[in-house]
Amino acid sequence: MSEFAPISIYLVISPLVSLIPLGLPFLFSSNSSTYPEKLSAYECGFDPSGDARSRFDIRFYLVSILFIIPDPEVTFSFPWAVPPNKIDPFGSWSMMAFLLILTIGSLYEWKRGASDRE
To answer: Membrane-spanning residues where (predicted)?
Structure first.
């Protein structure tokens, strides 16, 4: 049983480390200062207008994908930071396939005109 002691300690301490910061603000907050104006929706200083579930133009989604594509590209390119003789051919070709998929996605968005300004 002594070999499971570190795991038991970890299982007790880890929820405390995550739950204490979540519960701490409730100790210092008060509901006495809430009033309807503070609880109302805020939209750039104006009253909200229209439905929040309205349809958006596809360009909004394409622009968001334009900003998302470089993130995994940079993240998954880190394995290429090792010397070339340390990467086996499978790893090298899998990275090439990954970059090819991202390039196809970028070309698709470019063709659709996601980066065009009106």
So the answer is: 6-28, 90-108
CATH fold for domain 3-112: Methane Monooxygenase Hydroxylase; Chain G, domain 1 (1.20.58)
Q: How far is residue 96's CA from residue 94's CA, in Å, rounded to a whole number?
A: 5
CA angle, residues 33, 38, 43, in degrees to nearest 5 = 160
Using an 8 Å Cβ cutoff, are 114 and 64 in contact? no
Per-residue pLDDT of 71-106, as tens digits, reads: 777 777 777 777 777 778 888 888 888 889 888 888
**pTM for the full model?**
0.43
Quote the distance between the C-alpha of residue 64 and its chain's center. Answer: 12
d(CA 80, CA 70): 16
Backbone CA torsion sign across 84, 97, 78, 62: positive
Backbone CA torsion sign across 67, 70, 74, 76: positive
